[in-house]
Amino acid sequence: MSIFPPLPEQLAIESGFLTEPERSQLWEAAVLMADSRNLLVRFAGLFGRQITGLNRIAGRVGTRIGSEAWSSFPHRAQEMVEDVLWSSYSYATLGLDTVSHFLRPKESRKNYFHQLATTASGAASGFIGLPGALIDIPFTTTVILRSIAEIARDCGEDLSAEETKRACLEVLALGTPGPGGEDTEAGYWAARLGMSHLAINLLIRSAAGRFSLVLSEKIMAQVVPLAGAITGALMNYGFTDYYQSMAKVHFCLRALERRTGEPEAIKIVFVAMVRAARERRRIVKRQDIKQTLLPAH
Predict the structure, then answer these.
(1) Rounded to whole angstroms, what are the CA distances from 266 to 11, 32, 148, 181, 286?
(2) Average pLDDT in the 7-11 region?
(3) Among residues 169, 151, 231, which one has the least CA distance to residue 205?
(4) How many helices (H) and strands (E) does the chain have?
(5) 3-state DSSP: the chain helix, strand, coil percent, rounded to 5?
(6) How far is 137 from 215, CA to CA, in rounded Å?
(7) Is the pLDDT of residue 213 over 70?
(8) pLDDT over 70 percentage in the chain
(9) In this structure, what DSSP letter does residue 19 have?
(10) Quick check: 19 pLDDT over 90?
(11) What is the pTM of this model?
Protein backbone atom coordinates (compact mmCIF):
# COMPACT_ATOMS: atom_id res chain seq x y z
CA MET A 1 0.00 0.00 0.00
CA SER A 2 1.36 3.43 -0.94
CA ILE A 3 2.06 5.85 1.90
CA PHE A 4 1.41 9.45 0.91
CA PRO A 5 3.18 12.37 2.61
CA PRO A 6 1.13 14.69 4.80
CA LEU A 7 -0.70 17.60 3.18
CA PRO A 8 1.04 20.96 3.79
CA GLU A 9 -0.86 23.01 6.36
CA GLN A 10 -1.31 26.02 4.06
CA LEU A 11 -2.96 23.85 1.40
CA ALA A 12 -5.24 22.34 4.01
CA ILE A 13 -6.43 25.86 4.82
CA GLU A 14 -6.86 26.83 1.15
CA SER A 15 -8.94 23.68 0.51
CA GLY A 16 -11.20 24.35 3.48
CA PHE A 17 -14.31 24.06 1.31
CA LEU A 18 -13.60 20.32 0.99
CA THR A 19 -14.30 17.69 3.61
CA GLU A 20 -11.32 15.88 5.14
CA PRO A 21 -11.81 12.74 2.99
CA GLU A 22 -12.18 14.87 -0.16
CA ARG A 23 -9.03 16.81 0.71
CA SER A 24 -7.12 13.55 1.17
CA GLN A 25 -8.38 12.22 -2.17
CA LEU A 26 -7.31 15.37 -3.99
CA TRP A 27 -3.86 15.36 -2.35
CA GLU A 28 -3.38 11.70 -3.30
CA ALA A 29 -4.30 12.55 -6.91
CA ALA A 30 -1.83 15.45 -6.87
CA VAL A 31 1.00 13.22 -5.63
CA LEU A 32 0.18 10.69 -8.35
CA MET A 33 0.24 13.44 -10.99
CA ALA A 34 3.63 14.63 -9.76
CA ASP A 35 5.20 11.18 -9.45
CA SER A 36 3.58 8.97 -12.08
CA ARG A 37 5.91 9.90 -14.97
CA ASN A 38 9.11 8.89 -13.17
CA LEU A 39 9.18 5.25 -14.26
CA LEU A 40 8.27 6.03 -17.86
CA VAL A 41 10.84 8.80 -18.13
CA ARG A 42 13.47 6.27 -17.04
CA PHE A 43 12.21 3.87 -19.69
CA ALA A 44 12.40 6.61 -22.31
CA GLY A 45 16.01 7.29 -21.36
CA LEU A 46 16.87 3.61 -21.34
CA PHE A 47 15.30 2.66 -24.65
CA GLY A 48 15.14 5.96 -26.51
CA ARG A 49 18.61 5.64 -28.07
CA GLN A 50 17.87 2.04 -28.97
CA ILE A 51 14.68 3.03 -30.84
CA THR A 52 16.43 5.89 -32.64
CA GLY A 53 19.26 3.60 -33.71
CA LEU A 54 16.88 0.99 -35.06
CA ASN A 55 14.98 3.58 -37.08
CA ARG A 56 18.25 4.85 -38.54
CA ILE A 57 19.38 1.33 -39.50
CA ALA A 58 16.01 0.53 -41.08
CA GLY A 59 16.20 3.68 -43.15
CA ARG A 60 19.70 2.83 -44.42
CA VAL A 61 19.26 -0.80 -45.40
CA GLY A 62 15.99 -0.37 -47.27
CA THR A 63 13.81 -3.42 -47.74
CA ARG A 64 16.52 -5.97 -47.00
CA ILE A 65 15.45 -6.44 -43.36
CA GLY A 66 11.82 -5.52 -43.81
CA SER A 67 12.14 -1.81 -43.15
CA GLU A 68 8.94 -1.19 -45.12
CA ALA A 69 7.04 -3.22 -42.56
CA TRP A 70 8.62 -1.27 -39.71
CA SER A 71 8.14 2.13 -41.33
CA SER A 72 4.43 1.46 -41.79
CA PHE A 73 4.02 -0.06 -38.34
CA PRO A 74 2.97 3.14 -36.47
CA HIS A 75 0.10 3.57 -38.95
CA ARG A 76 -0.90 -0.07 -38.59
CA ALA A 77 -0.72 0.23 -34.79
CA GLN A 78 -3.04 3.25 -34.86
CA GLU A 79 -5.54 1.37 -37.01
CA MET A 80 -5.47 -1.58 -34.60
CA VAL A 81 -5.95 0.62 -31.53
CA GLU A 82 -8.74 2.58 -33.23
CA ASP A 83 -10.56 -0.66 -34.09
CA VAL A 84 -10.21 -1.85 -30.50
CA LEU A 85 -11.53 1.42 -29.05
CA TRP A 86 -14.53 1.36 -31.39
CA SER A 87 -15.49 -2.23 -30.62
CA SER A 88 -14.19 -3.29 -27.23
CA TYR A 89 -15.61 -0.86 -24.66
CA SER A 90 -18.59 -3.14 -24.01
CA TYR A 91 -16.24 -6.13 -23.65
CA ALA A 92 -13.79 -4.20 -21.50
CA THR A 93 -16.58 -3.24 -19.06
CA LEU A 94 -18.39 -6.59 -19.13
CA GLY A 95 -19.44 -7.61 -15.63
CA LEU A 96 -18.02 -4.57 -13.85
CA ASP A 97 -21.41 -3.05 -13.04
CA THR A 98 -22.78 -6.36 -11.75
CA VAL A 99 -20.59 -6.19 -8.63
CA SER A 100 -22.70 -5.24 -5.62
CA HIS A 101 -22.26 -1.67 -4.48
CA PHE A 102 -21.51 -2.92 -0.97
CA LEU A 103 -18.66 -5.13 -2.24
CA ARG A 104 -16.93 -2.34 -4.12
CA PRO A 105 -13.93 -0.61 -2.54
CA LYS A 106 -14.56 2.71 -0.80
CA GLU A 107 -11.95 4.34 -3.03
CA SER A 108 -10.38 3.55 -6.39
CA ARG A 109 -7.42 1.19 -6.39
CA LYS A 110 -5.09 -0.38 -8.91
CA ASN A 111 -5.88 -3.89 -10.11
CA TYR A 112 -2.60 -5.78 -10.14
CA PHE A 113 -4.11 -8.57 -12.24
CA HIS A 114 -4.23 -6.10 -15.15
CA GLN A 115 -0.55 -5.26 -14.64
CA LEU A 116 0.31 -8.96 -14.55
CA ALA A 117 -1.70 -9.66 -17.72
CA THR A 118 -0.10 -6.88 -19.78
CA THR A 119 3.36 -7.72 -18.43
CA ALA A 120 2.94 -11.33 -19.58
CA SER A 121 1.66 -10.16 -22.97
CA GLY A 122 4.65 -7.84 -23.39
CA ALA A 123 7.07 -10.64 -22.56
CA ALA A 124 5.40 -13.03 -25.00
CA SER A 125 5.33 -10.51 -27.84
CA GLY A 126 9.00 -9.73 -27.19
CA PHE A 127 9.88 -13.38 -27.79
CA ILE A 128 7.84 -13.60 -30.99
CA GLY A 129 8.69 -10.21 -32.55
CA LEU A 130 6.48 -8.33 -35.00
CA PRO A 131 3.80 -11.09 -35.31
CA GLY A 132 3.47 -11.02 -31.52
CA ALA A 133 2.87 -7.27 -31.62
CA LEU A 134 -0.24 -7.84 -33.72
CA ILE A 135 -1.67 -9.72 -30.73
CA ASP A 136 -0.10 -7.65 -27.96
CA ILE A 137 -1.42 -4.28 -29.11
CA PRO A 138 -5.16 -5.17 -29.14
CA PHE A 139 -4.83 -7.23 -25.94
CA THR A 140 -2.90 -4.57 -24.02
CA THR A 141 -5.25 -1.83 -25.19
CA THR A 142 -8.32 -3.78 -24.04
CA VAL A 143 -6.82 -4.68 -20.66
CA ILE A 144 -5.72 -1.11 -19.94
CA LEU A 145 -9.15 0.18 -21.02
CA ARG A 146 -10.81 -2.29 -18.63
CA SER A 147 -8.51 -1.20 -15.82
CA ILE A 148 -9.42 2.44 -16.50
CA ALA A 149 -13.14 1.55 -16.52
CA GLU A 150 -12.81 -0.28 -13.20
CA ILE A 151 -11.23 2.78 -11.60
CA ALA A 152 -14.02 4.92 -13.09
CA ARG A 153 -16.64 2.64 -11.52
CA ASP A 154 -14.88 2.77 -8.12
CA CYS A 155 -15.04 6.59 -8.33
CA GLY A 156 -18.82 6.50 -8.78
CA GLU A 157 -19.08 6.68 -12.58
CA ASP A 158 -21.94 4.95 -14.43
CA LEU A 159 -20.22 2.69 -16.97
CA SER A 160 -23.35 2.52 -19.14
CA ALA A 161 -23.33 6.31 -19.63
CA GLU A 162 -21.87 7.77 -22.82
CA GLU A 163 -20.10 10.44 -20.76
CA THR A 164 -18.22 7.77 -18.81
CA LYS A 165 -17.14 6.08 -22.04
CA ARG A 166 -15.80 9.42 -23.24
CA ALA A 167 -13.98 9.94 -19.94
CA CYS A 168 -12.30 6.51 -20.18
CA LEU A 169 -11.12 7.29 -23.70
CA GLU A 170 -9.88 10.68 -22.52
CA VAL A 171 -7.48 8.96 -20.10
CA LEU A 172 -5.73 7.29 -23.04
CA ALA A 173 -5.46 10.65 -24.81
CA LEU A 174 -4.79 12.89 -21.80
CA GLY A 175 -2.40 10.51 -20.13
CA THR A 176 0.05 9.92 -22.95
CA PRO A 177 3.47 9.33 -21.34
CA GLY A 178 6.09 11.92 -22.07
CA PRO A 179 8.76 14.01 -20.41
CA GLY A 180 7.65 15.39 -17.07
CA GLY A 181 7.92 19.05 -16.31
CA GLU A 182 6.53 22.04 -14.51
CA ASP A 183 3.62 22.32 -16.93
CA THR A 184 2.41 18.73 -16.70
CA GLU A 185 -0.79 19.67 -14.91
CA ALA A 186 -1.30 22.69 -17.17
CA GLY A 187 -1.09 20.39 -20.18
CA TYR A 188 -3.63 18.10 -18.57
CA TRP A 189 -6.20 20.87 -18.17
CA ALA A 190 -5.60 22.26 -21.66
CA ALA A 191 -5.93 18.82 -23.27
CA ARG A 192 -9.02 18.01 -21.23
CA LEU A 193 -10.70 21.22 -22.37
CA GLY A 194 -9.87 20.48 -25.99
CA MET A 195 -11.16 16.91 -25.76
CA SER A 196 -14.46 17.97 -24.18
CA HIS A 197 -15.67 19.44 -27.49
CA LEU A 198 -14.71 16.53 -29.74
CA ALA A 199 -17.27 14.24 -31.29
CA ILE A 200 -16.85 10.60 -30.22
CA ASN A 201 -15.27 9.56 -33.54
CA LEU A 202 -12.66 12.34 -33.29
CA LEU A 203 -12.03 11.52 -29.63
CA ILE A 204 -11.37 7.87 -30.51
CA ARG A 205 -9.09 8.91 -33.36
CA SER A 206 -7.15 11.26 -31.08
CA ALA A 207 -6.83 8.67 -28.30
CA ALA A 208 -5.79 5.99 -30.80
CA GLY A 209 -3.20 8.28 -32.39
CA ARG A 210 -1.49 9.12 -29.12
CA PHE A 211 -1.73 5.69 -27.51
CA SER A 212 -0.60 3.81 -30.64
CA LEU A 213 2.49 6.02 -30.92
CA VAL A 214 3.52 4.90 -27.44
CA LEU A 215 2.87 1.24 -28.28
CA SER A 216 4.66 1.31 -31.64
CA GLU A 217 7.78 2.81 -30.03
CA LYS A 218 7.60 0.10 -27.38
CA ILE A 219 7.47 -2.60 -30.08
CA MET A 220 10.52 -1.08 -31.76
CA ALA A 221 12.40 -1.33 -28.47
CA GLN A 222 11.51 -5.03 -28.26
CA VAL A 223 13.28 -6.14 -31.46
CA VAL A 224 16.72 -6.41 -29.85
CA PRO A 225 17.52 -10.13 -29.61
CA LEU A 226 17.10 -11.83 -26.21
CA ALA A 227 16.30 -8.55 -24.45
CA GLY A 228 12.97 -8.13 -26.28
CA ALA A 229 10.93 -10.18 -23.82
CA ILE A 230 12.32 -8.31 -20.80
CA THR A 231 11.83 -4.96 -22.52
CA GLY A 232 8.25 -5.79 -23.49
CA ALA A 233 7.38 -7.01 -20.01
CA LEU A 234 8.89 -4.01 -18.21
CA MET A 235 7.39 -1.42 -20.53
CA ASN A 236 3.92 -3.00 -20.49
CA TYR A 237 4.04 -3.03 -16.70
CA GLY A 238 5.11 0.62 -16.68
CA PHE A 239 2.40 1.68 -19.15
CA THR A 240 -0.35 -0.10 -17.22
CA ASP A 241 0.79 1.39 -13.92
CA TYR A 242 0.99 4.83 -15.51
CA TYR A 243 -2.49 4.77 -17.06
CA GLN A 244 -3.99 3.43 -13.84
CA SER A 245 -2.46 6.39 -12.00
CA MET A 246 -3.76 8.85 -14.58
CA ALA A 247 -7.22 7.25 -14.38
CA LYS A 248 -7.23 7.73 -10.62
CA VAL A 249 -6.32 11.39 -11.10
CA HIS A 250 -8.91 11.97 -13.84
CA PHE A 251 -11.85 10.30 -12.10
CA CYS A 252 -10.99 11.69 -8.68
CA LEU A 253 -11.17 15.20 -10.14
CA ARG A 254 -14.45 14.43 -11.93
CA ALA A 255 -15.97 13.02 -8.73
CA LEU A 256 -14.95 16.05 -6.65
CA GLU A 257 -16.24 18.43 -9.33
CA ARG A 258 -19.61 16.67 -9.25
CA ARG A 259 -19.85 16.60 -5.45
CA THR A 260 -18.77 20.19 -4.82
CA GLY A 261 -20.18 21.87 -7.92
CA GLU A 262 -17.04 24.06 -7.97
CA PRO A 263 -14.78 22.79 -10.79
CA GLU A 264 -12.72 25.98 -10.98
CA ALA A 265 -11.99 25.92 -7.23
CA ILE A 266 -10.99 22.26 -7.49
CA LYS A 267 -8.63 23.10 -10.35
CA ILE A 268 -6.93 25.94 -8.45
CA VAL A 269 -6.34 23.82 -5.35
CA PHE A 270 -5.23 20.79 -7.36
CA VAL A 271 -2.62 22.77 -9.33
CA ALA A 272 -1.24 24.15 -6.05
CA MET A 273 -1.14 20.63 -4.59
CA VAL A 274 0.73 19.23 -7.60
CA ARG A 275 3.36 21.96 -7.28
CA ALA A 276 3.71 21.23 -3.56
CA ALA A 277 4.04 17.50 -4.27
CA ARG A 278 6.71 18.17 -6.89
CA GLU A 279 8.63 20.43 -4.51
CA ARG A 280 8.38 17.72 -1.84
CA ARG A 281 9.97 15.30 -4.32
CA ARG A 282 12.84 17.75 -5.00
CA ILE A 283 13.52 18.13 -1.28
CA VAL A 284 13.61 14.36 -0.79
CA LYS A 285 16.04 14.00 -3.72
CA ARG A 286 18.33 16.69 -2.32
CA GLN A 287 18.31 14.99 1.07
CA ASP A 288 19.14 11.64 -0.52
CA ILE A 289 22.05 13.20 -2.43
CA LYS A 290 23.40 14.82 0.74
CA GLN A 291 23.19 11.51 2.60
CA THR A 292 25.07 9.81 -0.23
CA LEU A 293 27.84 12.42 -0.22
CA LEU A 294 28.30 12.47 3.56
CA PRO A 295 31.39 10.50 4.69
CA ALA A 296 30.69 7.30 6.61
CA HIS A 297 31.56 7.34 10.29
Answers:
(1) 12, 16, 22, 21, 30
(2) 87
(3) 169
(4) 13, 0
(5) 80, 0, 20
(6) 7
(7) yes
(8) 69
(9) -
(10) yes
(11) 0.81
